Amino acid sequence: MEKTPNKDLPRLSQEEFKTSDKKPYIIILDNVRSMMNVGSAFRTGDAFLTEKICLCGITATPPHREIQKTALGATETVIWEYHADTLTLTKQLQTEGYKIVVIEQTEPKIYLNEFKVENNQKYAFVFGNEVEGVSLDVVKNADICVEIPQFGTKHSLNISVSIGVVIWDFLQKKSL
Fold this sequence. Notes:
Elements: H1 14-19, E1 25-30, H2 35-47, E2 52-56, H3 65-71, E3 80-83, H4 86-95, E4 98-103, E5 110-111, E6 122-128, H5 136-141, E7 144-147, H6 159-173
Parallel strand pairs: 1-2, 1-6, 2-3, 4-6, 4-7, 5-7
Helix pairs in contact: 2-3, 2-6
């Protein structure tokens, strides 16, 4: 077995990415503190053809050296918007037909493996602050709260890991 050289990997150019059909989901970052987590969200959004990323509250916005460190140029391909208030944004997206899916530990909850995806539905996935999680008002307004099952001693995953796990699971269920 041999590694595939980067030059041989099938990748879109920036222009091809910008004009490609995107997957029917949005990533929302609710008051995310770490700029490296923000950059990682961009990189994941690029890898999985997100419609856009919405940066809310205290979440930093590009351009910034700390975001670029992990985004590796994905801020140049992925559409993004800044919104001062996550709740206002999620309510607006609901009127546009998006199902708001908060990734959080709540009662009641649905574990990620039990989360059912509707093929003709658009989704907006909300990921929260590294310490406080998703804002309570956003949780209360969500259409569904999904929890990633965990089996060890820690109570959470890093937000960048959570985004990758949730979006990959979603796209697998969405019938790529």
